[in-house]
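Tutorial, part two.
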Amino acid sequence: MAYINRTGVPNSILDTHLKHLGYAELKIILVIIRQTYGWVDKRTGSHKEWDWISRRFFVKKTNLSLRSVSKAISSLFSKGLIHIKNEHGVYLYTTEDRRKAHKLFYSINKNVSREHTSPKTVKKSNPTIITHTKLYSEDTSQGMQKISFNHIQPPI
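Running the prediction step on this input gives:
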């Protein structure tokens, strides 16, 4: 494998999925991209498809905790952005299977192009209008500012 001075990031990651990735997820996926697309086989001229990456390596490269690394990997897998297999080439679909494996190999899912929808639910809230009124005191030359809150009830 040859070291190259740049690593290409798949456009779908940047164009479609970036807005749905958290801080730790972005760091983890960038390490996976670097460890795969960042290396070229001199004989074939192609990039690595898979790479064995330990959790400790992720911690070293990202400065995240082991727990954050594990959560980010699980999240990226559930979003369909990465593939994970063991040293025998068997794809691992559950956290339990990944815990049992001796070595984990990671790859970017090249077939992901669909729009990801965030699993987080959005709570509806009642709108609040903030109005500013100024009250002046004859005793002082400075005015005091008062904020009054008027809650609007949602239509029934």
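The mean pLDDT is 82. In part three we will examine how such features are distributed along the chain.
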